[in-house]
Amino acid sequence: MSAQHLSRPALPYFDLLMEERQEGGETGQLWENQVHWGYWEDPKAAEGTRADYTAAMEAMNGVLFHAGKLTDGQKLLDVGCGFGGTLQQINGAYSDMDLTGLNIDPRQLAAADAQITPTYGNTLRWVEGDACELPFEDNSFDRILAVECIFHFPSRQKFLAEAARVLKPGGYLAVSDFVPTMMFFGKTPIWMAIRPRIAKSYGTLGDVPLRGYRSMGRRAGLQLVANRNIRKNTMPTYPFLLRFFREQASEDAQSTMLVGTRWMKWLSKLSLLQYRVYTFVKPD
């Protein structure tokens, strides 16, 4: 599929960030590299500072690196790579890596390309493409990461099938996702009422999966080997972001971000929404 025919999902927070990057806005600076939730090994130790949240976003990447069994010398694809923060961290911590960042939004790819230079014998390329129609040959990658982005894809099932296709036999896929505690919650009137309010901030949300990840992976040709709920470790993200938006963000940022973040906090606090990290392997 040629790039000009890609259908980009509506993502208000990334539209906001592109504007803020040009204007030097506070929210653009906060999410200059990483654009995801933080991970705290001890949530009670969270400091509530910008530096602490930035470190927690890097720690979240570390959780995915561990889940995906990263080592030097691998050919790796980061799907939904955003501004390239995850690949930037890999680039600084691993050597002789063949790194590819894929995103459907060319603006994000241009920003990533402008701020990352390969080091330690690594190579780096940026590809515009659809996660559900990956523009790569079969058996191309040793590792695939999808850090907090799969919920924007039209279909989790289609992405998993595509990931299975482009993974080499024995290769690993690590995914982080917001998952309803009860699968049927995604079909209830309360979710249908909340969904557009979250979308006001965080944009297009794909279908809530009717099957669990183990079943979706099996249908795609992948074996689920690890499944970790880290909801509690992400909870300090919410008070930090809500205070940051109220006290430091522009009016546009407040208008865009506060509503959806409050609803995400409410769902997570009530344990209606989990934050899970999944590891799949493609059988030899």
Automatic annotation (TrEMBL):
Gene3D superfamilies: Vaccinia Virus protein VP39 (3.40.50.150). Residues 77-174 form the Methyltransferase type domain. One of its GO terms (molecular function) is S-adenosylmethionine-dependent methyltransferase activity. Keywords: Methyltransferase, Transferase. Pfam families: Methyltransf_11 (PF08241). One of its GO terms (biological process) is methylation. It comes from the Bacteria. This is SAM-dependent methyltransferase. It comes from Mycolicibacterium fluoranthenivorans. The lineage of its organism: Bacteria, Bacillati, Actinomycetota, Actinomycetes, Mycobacteriales.
